[in-house]
Amino acid sequence: MSRLLDRLQGEIDALDAQSLRRRRQIAETACAPLQTLTLAGSSAARTMLCFSSNDYLGLAAHPALAKAWAEGAALYGTGSGGSHLILGHSRAHAQLEETLAGWMSPFIPEARSLFFCTGYMANLAVLSALGGADAVIFSESLNHASLIDGARLAKARVERYAHCDVAALDAQLAACDAPVKLIVSDAVFSMDGNIAPVTALLALAEKHDAWLVIDDAHGFGVLGDTGRGVPEALGLHSQRLVLVGTLGKAAGVSGAFVAAHRTVIDYLVQRARPYIFTTAAPPAVAHALLASLALIGGEEGAQRRAQLKERIAQLRLGLEAVLPADGGARLPQSPTAIQPLIVGDNARAMLTMAQLDARGLRVGAIRPPTVPAGTARLRIALSASHTEADVARLVDALGETLASQQLTEAA
Ligand SMILES: *Cc1c(COP(=O)(O)O)cnc(C)c1O
Q1: Which strands form 180-186's sheet, in the order they lie side by side?
Q2: What pLDDT score was predicted for residue 12?
Q3: Does the pLDDT at position 13 exceed 80?
Q4: Is 370 assigned to a binding site?
Q5: Domains, the chain, with CATH or none
Protein backbone atom coordinates (compact mmCIF):
# COMPACT_ATOMS: atom_id res chain seq x y z
CA MET A 1 0.00 0.00 0.00
CA SER A 2 2.71 2.47 0.93
CA ARG A 3 4.34 2.03 -2.49
CA LEU A 4 1.08 3.03 -4.16
CA LEU A 5 0.67 6.00 -1.81
CA ASP A 6 4.30 7.02 -2.42
CA ARG A 7 3.63 7.17 -6.18
CA LEU A 8 0.70 9.52 -5.68
CA GLN A 9 2.60 11.67 -3.19
CA GLY A 10 5.52 11.87 -5.64
CA GLU A 11 3.23 13.27 -8.33
CA ILE A 12 1.71 15.78 -5.94
CA ASP A 13 5.19 16.91 -4.86
CA ALA A 14 6.21 17.33 -8.49
CA LEU A 15 3.17 19.54 -9.10
CA ASP A 16 4.08 21.56 -6.03
CA ALA A 17 7.62 22.11 -7.35
CA GLN A 18 6.22 23.51 -10.63
CA SER A 19 3.75 25.84 -8.88
CA LEU A 20 0.99 23.63 -10.27
CA ARG A 21 -0.48 22.21 -7.09
CA ARG A 22 -4.15 23.04 -6.66
CA ARG A 23 -5.57 24.05 -3.30
CA ARG A 24 -9.10 24.93 -2.41
CA GLN A 25 -10.39 27.89 -0.44
CA ILE A 26 -13.54 27.67 1.61
CA ALA A 27 -16.35 30.17 1.00
CA GLU A 28 -18.00 31.01 4.31
CA THR A 29 -20.66 33.28 2.80
CA ALA A 30 -22.82 33.47 -0.33
CA CYS A 31 -21.29 34.21 -3.71
CA ALA A 32 -20.94 38.02 -4.01
CA PRO A 33 -18.17 40.54 -4.80
CA LEU A 34 -17.43 40.83 -1.07
CA GLN A 35 -17.11 37.30 0.20
CA THR A 36 -15.71 35.78 3.38
CA LEU A 37 -13.16 33.10 2.52
CA THR A 38 -10.84 30.80 4.38
CA LEU A 39 -7.80 30.50 2.14
CA ALA A 40 -5.83 27.28 1.82
CA GLY A 41 -3.32 26.84 4.61
CA SER A 42 -4.92 29.51 6.77
CA SER A 43 -7.26 29.06 9.68
CA ALA A 44 -8.59 32.62 9.75
CA ALA A 45 -11.44 33.70 7.48
CA ARG A 46 -11.01 36.96 5.56
CA THR A 47 -13.49 39.09 3.70
CA MET A 48 -12.16 39.71 0.21
CA LEU A 49 -13.19 41.52 -2.93
CA CYS A 50 -13.52 38.69 -5.45
CA PHE A 51 -13.14 38.69 -9.21
CA SER A 52 -13.26 34.97 -9.76
CA SER A 53 -16.84 33.76 -9.85
CA ASN A 54 -18.87 32.82 -12.91
CA ASP A 55 -21.87 34.58 -11.37
CA TYR A 56 -21.80 37.14 -14.19
CA LEU A 57 -25.19 38.70 -13.48
CA GLY A 58 -24.96 38.54 -9.69
CA LEU A 59 -27.93 36.18 -9.43
CA ALA A 60 -26.33 33.37 -7.38
CA ALA A 61 -27.48 34.89 -4.10
CA HIS A 62 -30.57 36.72 -5.40
CA PRO A 63 -33.39 36.60 -2.81
CA ALA A 64 -36.02 35.88 -5.48
CA LEU A 65 -34.15 32.72 -6.49
CA ALA A 66 -33.67 31.52 -2.89
CA LYS A 67 -37.40 32.05 -2.40
CA ALA A 68 -38.24 30.10 -5.55
CA TRP A 69 -35.87 27.31 -4.47
CA ALA A 70 -37.65 27.04 -1.09
CA GLU A 71 -41.03 27.14 -2.81
CA GLY A 72 -39.87 24.35 -5.16
CA ALA A 73 -38.74 22.23 -2.22
CA ALA A 74 -42.11 22.76 -0.52
CA LEU A 75 -43.92 21.71 -3.71
CA TYR A 76 -41.74 18.78 -4.80
CA GLY A 77 -39.56 17.84 -1.81
CA THR A 78 -35.77 17.76 -1.95
CA GLY A 79 -35.00 14.70 -4.06
CA SER A 80 -36.28 13.88 -7.55
CA GLY A 81 -36.53 10.23 -6.58
CA GLY A 82 -35.09 8.78 -9.76
CA SER A 83 -33.73 9.23 -13.23
CA HIS A 84 -35.70 11.17 -15.84
CA LEU A 85 -36.82 8.01 -17.64
CA ILE A 86 -38.05 6.26 -14.48
CA LEU A 87 -39.93 8.79 -12.36
CA GLY A 88 -37.58 11.68 -11.65
CA HIS A 89 -38.94 13.93 -14.42
CA SER A 90 -41.14 16.46 -12.60
CA ARG A 91 -43.55 19.13 -13.82
CA ALA A 92 -40.88 21.71 -12.90
CA HIS A 93 -38.34 20.00 -15.18
CA ALA A 94 -40.90 19.85 -17.99
CA GLN A 95 -41.81 23.54 -17.60
CA LEU A 96 -38.16 24.53 -17.62
CA GLU A 97 -37.51 22.54 -20.81
CA GLU A 98 -40.55 24.11 -22.48
CA THR A 99 -39.43 27.60 -21.52
CA LEU A 100 -35.89 27.07 -22.77
CA ALA A 101 -37.17 25.56 -26.02
CA GLY A 102 -39.26 28.71 -26.51
CA TRP A 103 -36.20 30.86 -25.81
CA MET A 104 -34.15 29.08 -28.45
CA SER A 105 -36.86 28.63 -31.11
CA PRO A 106 -35.93 31.87 -32.95
CA PHE A 107 -32.50 30.31 -33.62
CA ILE A 108 -33.36 26.63 -34.06
CA PRO A 109 -36.45 25.65 -36.07
CA GLU A 110 -38.68 23.16 -34.19
CA ALA A 111 -36.50 23.56 -31.10
CA ARG A 112 -36.88 21.39 -28.03
CA SER A 113 -34.65 21.36 -24.97
CA LEU A 114 -33.35 18.81 -22.50
CA PHE A 115 -32.28 19.65 -18.94
CA PHE A 116 -29.12 18.14 -17.42
CA CYS A 117 -27.64 18.09 -13.91
CA THR A 118 -24.47 19.85 -15.11
CA GLY A 119 -22.88 21.28 -18.22
CA TYR A 120 -20.16 18.67 -17.96
CA MET A 121 -22.76 15.93 -18.32
CA ALA A 122 -24.60 17.75 -21.12
CA ASN A 123 -21.41 17.86 -23.17
CA LEU A 124 -20.60 14.20 -22.49
CA ALA A 125 -24.16 13.35 -23.54
CA VAL A 126 -24.22 15.30 -26.81
CA LEU A 127 -20.82 14.20 -28.07
CA SER A 128 -21.10 10.55 -27.04
CA ALA A 129 -24.62 10.22 -28.48
CA LEU A 130 -24.11 12.10 -31.77
CA GLY A 131 -20.48 11.05 -32.22
CA GLY A 132 -21.03 7.40 -33.19
CA ALA A 133 -18.45 5.09 -34.78
CA ASP A 134 -19.15 6.48 -38.27
CA ALA A 135 -18.69 10.10 -37.18
CA VAL A 136 -15.76 12.50 -37.05
CA ILE A 137 -15.65 15.18 -34.37
CA PHE A 138 -13.88 18.41 -35.37
CA SER A 139 -12.83 19.90 -32.07
CA GLU A 140 -11.62 23.50 -31.58
CA SER A 141 -8.23 23.41 -29.88
CA LEU A 142 -9.22 25.62 -26.93
CA ASN A 143 -12.40 23.72 -26.13
CA HIS A 144 -13.46 23.24 -22.52
CA ALA A 145 -12.39 20.02 -20.78
CA SER A 146 -15.96 18.73 -20.78
CA LEU A 147 -16.06 18.83 -24.59
CA ILE A 148 -12.69 17.11 -24.77
CA ASP A 149 -13.91 14.40 -22.40
CA GLY A 150 -17.16 14.09 -24.37
CA ALA A 151 -15.12 13.50 -27.52
CA ARG A 152 -13.09 10.85 -25.68
CA LEU A 153 -16.24 9.08 -24.60
CA ALA A 154 -17.58 9.14 -28.18
CA LYS A 155 -16.74 6.29 -30.57
CA ALA A 156 -16.09 8.91 -33.26
CA ARG A 157 -12.63 9.77 -34.53
CA VAL A 158 -11.50 13.17 -33.23
CA GLU A 159 -9.65 15.83 -35.25
CA ARG A 160 -8.57 19.03 -33.58
CA TYR A 161 -8.52 22.31 -35.48
CA ALA A 162 -6.47 25.38 -34.63
CA HIS A 163 -8.02 28.10 -32.49
CA CYS A 164 -10.63 30.05 -34.52
CA ASP A 165 -8.99 28.85 -37.77
CA VAL A 166 -12.01 28.68 -40.09
CA ALA A 167 -9.93 28.12 -43.24
CA ALA A 168 -8.09 25.15 -41.72
CA LEU A 169 -11.35 23.66 -40.53
CA ASP A 170 -12.85 24.11 -44.01
CA ALA A 171 -9.97 22.11 -45.49
CA GLN A 172 -10.26 19.40 -42.83
CA LEU A 173 -13.99 19.04 -43.46
CA ALA A 174 -13.46 18.92 -47.22
CA ALA A 175 -10.97 16.08 -46.81
CA CYS A 176 -13.37 14.03 -44.68
CA ASP A 177 -15.83 11.56 -46.19
CA ALA A 178 -17.42 10.31 -42.95
CA PRO A 179 -21.23 10.24 -43.13
CA VAL A 180 -21.55 12.21 -39.88
CA LYS A 181 -19.46 15.28 -39.05
CA LEU A 182 -19.68 17.31 -35.86
CA ILE A 183 -18.05 20.70 -35.48
CA VAL A 184 -17.64 21.36 -31.77
CA SER A 185 -16.66 24.67 -30.18
CA ASP A 186 -17.02 26.79 -27.09
CA ALA A 187 -19.08 29.85 -28.02
CA VAL A 188 -17.16 32.03 -25.56
CA PHE A 189 -13.73 30.68 -24.64
CA SER A 190 -13.70 30.11 -20.91
CA MET A 191 -10.11 31.18 -20.19
CA ASP A 192 -9.86 33.95 -22.82
CA GLY A 193 -13.32 35.49 -23.04
CA ASN A 194 -13.24 35.87 -26.84
CA ILE A 195 -16.18 34.74 -28.97
CA ALA A 196 -15.75 31.92 -31.50
CA PRO A 197 -16.42 32.70 -35.19
CA VAL A 198 -19.77 30.94 -34.84
CA THR A 199 -21.41 32.47 -37.93
CA ALA A 200 -18.55 31.19 -40.09
CA LEU A 201 -18.63 27.79 -38.33
CA LEU A 202 -22.34 27.52 -39.12
CA ALA A 203 -21.66 28.36 -42.78
CA LEU A 204 -19.11 25.52 -42.83
CA ALA A 205 -21.63 23.18 -41.24
CA GLU A 206 -24.08 24.03 -44.05
CA LYS A 207 -21.42 23.68 -46.73
CA HIS A 208 -20.15 20.30 -45.49
CA ASP A 209 -23.43 18.86 -44.19
CA ALA A 210 -22.25 18.80 -40.57
CA TRP A 211 -23.71 19.42 -37.12
CA LEU A 212 -22.53 22.47 -35.19
CA VAL A 213 -22.33 21.88 -31.44
CA ILE A 214 -21.85 25.14 -29.57
CA ASP A 215 -21.20 25.37 -25.82
CA ASP A 216 -22.48 28.74 -24.63
CA ALA A 217 -21.62 28.33 -20.93
CA HIS A 218 -20.31 31.90 -20.70
CA GLY A 219 -22.65 33.60 -23.17
CA PHE A 220 -26.01 32.40 -21.88
CA GLY A 221 -27.64 35.14 -19.78
CA VAL A 222 -24.86 37.60 -20.62
CA LEU A 223 -24.95 38.16 -24.39
CA GLY A 224 -27.86 39.16 -26.63
CA ASP A 225 -30.52 41.77 -25.92
CA THR A 226 -32.62 39.34 -23.88
CA GLY A 227 -29.75 37.23 -22.53
CA ARG A 228 -30.20 34.24 -24.82
CA GLY A 229 -26.50 34.19 -25.50
CA VAL A 230 -24.36 33.88 -28.60
CA PRO A 231 -27.19 32.66 -30.91
CA GLU A 232 -29.08 35.86 -30.15
CA ALA A 233 -26.00 38.11 -30.26
CA LEU A 234 -25.03 36.74 -33.69
CA GLY A 235 -28.54 36.12 -35.07
CA LEU A 236 -27.99 32.43 -35.79
CA HIS A 237 -30.67 30.31 -37.42
CA SER A 238 -30.26 26.67 -38.36
CA GLN A 239 -31.53 23.14 -37.83
CA ARG A 240 -27.90 22.06 -37.62
CA LEU A 241 -27.33 23.97 -34.43
CA VAL A 242 -27.00 21.94 -31.22
CA LEU A 243 -26.70 24.42 -28.40
CA VAL A 244 -25.47 23.66 -24.88
CA GLY A 245 -26.14 26.30 -22.25
CA THR A 246 -25.17 26.05 -18.60
CA LEU A 247 -27.30 27.30 -15.74
CA GLY A 248 -24.82 27.47 -12.86
CA LYS A 249 -23.01 30.53 -14.19
CA ALA A 250 -24.96 33.66 -15.22
CA ALA A 251 -28.24 31.92 -14.35
CA GLY A 252 -27.02 31.66 -10.77
CA VAL A 253 -28.39 28.20 -9.96
CA SER A 254 -27.15 24.86 -11.32
CA GLY A 255 -27.59 22.54 -14.28
CA ALA A 256 -27.50 22.87 -18.04
CA PHE A 257 -29.61 22.36 -21.13
CA VAL A 258 -29.24 21.21 -24.69
CA ALA A 259 -31.45 22.94 -27.27
CA ALA A 260 -31.77 21.42 -30.73
CA HIS A 261 -34.25 20.24 -33.34
CA ARG A 262 -36.89 18.01 -31.73
CA THR A 263 -35.52 14.89 -33.43
CA VAL A 264 -32.08 15.48 -31.90
CA ILE A 265 -33.58 15.93 -28.44
CA ASP A 266 -35.71 12.79 -28.80
CA TYR A 267 -32.58 10.90 -29.90
CA LEU A 268 -30.66 12.11 -26.84
CA VAL A 269 -33.46 10.87 -24.58
CA GLN A 270 -33.10 7.43 -26.20
CA ARG A 271 -29.33 7.24 -26.39
CA ALA A 272 -27.46 9.72 -24.19
CA ARG A 273 -26.11 7.70 -21.28
CA PRO A 274 -25.14 10.74 -19.14
CA TYR A 275 -28.82 11.71 -19.37
CA ILE A 276 -30.32 8.28 -18.82
CA PHE A 277 -28.18 6.75 -16.09
CA THR A 278 -28.23 9.42 -13.43
CA THR A 279 -30.69 10.76 -10.89
CA ALA A 280 -32.61 13.80 -12.10
CA ALA A 281 -31.58 17.05 -10.42
CA PRO A 282 -33.92 18.14 -7.61
CA PRO A 283 -37.14 19.61 -9.06
CA ALA A 284 -36.61 22.62 -6.78
CA VAL A 285 -33.54 23.45 -8.88
CA ALA A 286 -35.71 23.54 -12.01
CA HIS A 287 -38.29 25.61 -10.15
CA ALA A 288 -35.61 28.13 -9.10
CA LEU A 289 -34.31 28.18 -12.68
CA LEU A 290 -37.74 29.22 -13.97
CA ALA A 291 -37.49 32.24 -11.67
CA SER A 292 -33.95 32.89 -12.89
CA LEU A 293 -35.06 32.85 -16.54
CA ALA A 294 -37.82 35.34 -15.71
CA LEU A 295 -35.18 37.69 -14.26
CA ILE A 296 -32.69 37.18 -17.12
CA GLY A 297 -35.30 37.77 -19.82
CA GLY A 298 -36.93 40.72 -18.05
CA GLU A 299 -36.15 44.32 -17.16
CA GLU A 300 -33.81 43.33 -14.33
CA GLY A 301 -31.72 41.14 -16.61
CA ALA A 302 -31.37 43.95 -19.14
CA GLN A 303 -30.24 46.32 -16.39
CA ARG A 304 -27.70 43.84 -15.08
CA ARG A 305 -26.29 43.23 -18.55
CA ALA A 306 -25.92 47.00 -19.02
CA GLN A 307 -24.08 47.28 -15.67
CA LEU A 308 -21.78 44.43 -16.60
CA LYS A 309 -20.94 46.11 -19.93
CA GLU A 310 -19.98 49.30 -18.08
CA ARG A 311 -17.66 47.41 -15.72
CA ILE A 312 -16.01 45.56 -18.64
CA ALA A 313 -15.29 48.85 -20.43
CA GLN A 314 -14.00 50.42 -17.20
CA LEU A 315 -11.66 47.52 -16.45
CA ARG A 316 -10.19 47.37 -19.95
CA LEU A 317 -9.61 51.10 -20.18
CA GLY A 318 -8.06 51.15 -16.69
CA LEU A 319 -5.80 48.12 -17.19
CA GLU A 320 -4.57 49.18 -20.63
CA ALA A 321 -3.26 52.35 -18.96
CA VAL A 322 -1.24 50.46 -16.32
CA LEU A 323 0.14 47.49 -18.28
CA PRO A 324 3.96 47.37 -18.10
CA ALA A 325 5.75 48.69 -21.19
CA ASP A 326 7.97 45.57 -21.39
CA GLY A 327 4.99 43.44 -22.48
CA GLY A 328 5.33 41.30 -19.33
CA ALA A 329 1.57 41.27 -19.03
CA ARG A 330 -1.05 41.60 -21.74
CA LEU A 331 -4.81 41.87 -21.99
CA PRO A 332 -6.10 40.22 -25.18
CA GLN A 333 -9.37 41.36 -26.78
CA SER A 334 -12.44 40.13 -24.93
CA PRO A 335 -15.93 41.64 -25.08
CA THR A 336 -17.26 39.40 -22.28
CA ALA A 337 -17.18 39.17 -18.49
CA ILE A 338 -14.00 37.06 -18.74
CA GLN A 339 -10.90 39.26 -18.97
CA PRO A 340 -7.57 37.40 -19.15
CA LEU A 341 -4.43 39.15 -17.93
CA ILE A 342 -1.71 36.93 -19.38
CA VAL A 343 1.58 37.01 -17.45
CA GLY A 344 3.27 33.93 -18.97
CA ASP A 345 4.93 31.77 -16.37
CA ASN A 346 3.25 29.89 -13.55
CA ALA A 347 5.29 31.34 -10.73
CA ARG A 348 4.56 34.89 -11.88
CA ALA A 349 0.85 34.19 -12.01
CA MET A 350 0.99 32.76 -8.48
CA LEU A 351 3.06 35.69 -7.23
CA THR A 352 0.64 38.24 -8.70
CA MET A 353 -2.27 36.40 -7.15
CA ALA A 354 -0.51 36.34 -3.78
CA GLN A 355 0.23 40.07 -3.99
CA LEU A 356 -3.42 40.78 -4.75
CA ASP A 357 -4.44 38.45 -1.89
CA ALA A 358 -2.32 40.53 0.48
CA ARG A 359 -4.42 43.53 -0.54
CA GLY A 360 -7.68 41.73 0.06
CA LEU A 361 -8.39 41.05 -3.61
CA ARG A 362 -9.15 37.63 -5.02
CA VAL A 363 -8.47 36.82 -8.68
CA GLY A 364 -7.96 33.27 -9.93
CA ALA A 365 -4.55 32.31 -11.31
CA ILE A 366 -4.98 29.85 -14.17
CA ARG A 367 -2.10 27.58 -15.09
CA PRO A 368 -1.47 24.68 -17.45
CA PRO A 369 -2.98 22.25 -18.24
CA THR A 370 -6.09 24.45 -18.07
CA VAL A 371 -4.35 26.88 -20.45
CA PRO A 372 -1.41 26.28 -22.87
CA ALA A 373 2.08 26.25 -21.31
CA GLY A 374 3.63 29.71 -21.13
CA THR A 375 0.26 31.49 -20.95
CA ALA A 376 -0.45 31.41 -17.22
CA ARG A 377 -2.83 34.20 -16.40
CA LEU A 378 -5.06 35.97 -13.99
CA ARG A 379 -8.58 35.24 -15.08
CA ILE A 380 -10.51 38.32 -14.06
CA ALA A 381 -14.22 37.59 -14.00
CA LEU A 382 -16.56 40.53 -13.72
CA SER A 383 -20.11 40.55 -12.47
CA ALA A 384 -23.00 42.98 -12.76
CA SER A 385 -22.83 43.23 -8.97
CA HIS A 386 -19.33 44.72 -9.00
CA THR A 387 -19.45 48.47 -8.38
CA GLU A 388 -17.40 51.12 -10.16
CA ALA A 389 -15.34 51.46 -6.95
CA ASP A 390 -14.68 47.68 -6.87
CA VAL A 391 -13.23 47.71 -10.38
CA ALA A 392 -11.21 50.87 -9.67
CA ARG A 393 -9.68 49.12 -6.64
CA LEU A 394 -8.63 46.15 -8.77
CA VAL A 395 -7.10 48.36 -11.48
CA ASP A 396 -5.09 50.33 -8.89
CA ALA A 397 -3.87 47.19 -7.13
CA LEU A 398 -2.84 45.49 -10.38
CA GLY A 399 -1.08 48.64 -11.59
CA GLU A 400 1.00 48.81 -8.40
CA THR A 401 1.65 45.06 -8.29
CA LEU A 402 2.86 44.85 -11.89
CA ALA A 403 5.03 47.95 -11.45
CA SER A 404 6.65 46.50 -8.29
CA GLN A 405 7.41 43.23 -10.13
CA GLN A 406 9.20 45.21 -12.86
CA LEU A 407 11.30 47.00 -10.24
CA THR A 408 12.26 43.68 -8.64
CA GLU A 409 13.28 42.24 -12.01
CA ALA A 410 15.32 45.33 -12.85
CA ALA A 411 17.14 45.22 -9.49
C1 LIG B 1 -18.33 25.59 -16.80
C2 LIG B 1 -18.33 25.04 -18.17
C3 LIG B 1 -18.91 23.80 -18.46
C4 LIG B 1 -19.42 22.90 -17.40
O5 LIG B 1 -20.63 23.32 -16.87
P6 LIG B 1 -21.01 22.86 -15.40
O7 LIG B 1 -22.47 23.13 -15.32
O8 LIG B 1 -20.19 23.67 -14.47
O9 LIG B 1 -20.69 21.40 -15.31
C10 LIG B 1 -18.99 23.40 -19.78
N11 LIG B 1 -18.46 24.16 -20.76
C12 LIG B 1 -17.85 25.33 -20.51
C13 LIG B 1 -17.29 26.12 -21.64
C14 LIG B 1 -17.76 25.79 -19.21
O15 LIG B 1 -17.12 26.93 -18.96
Answers
A1: 111-116, 256-261, 241-246, 211-215, 180-186, 135-140, 157-161
A2: 97
A3: yes
A4: yes
A5: 23-52+299-410 (3.90.1150.10), 63-296 (3.40.640.10)
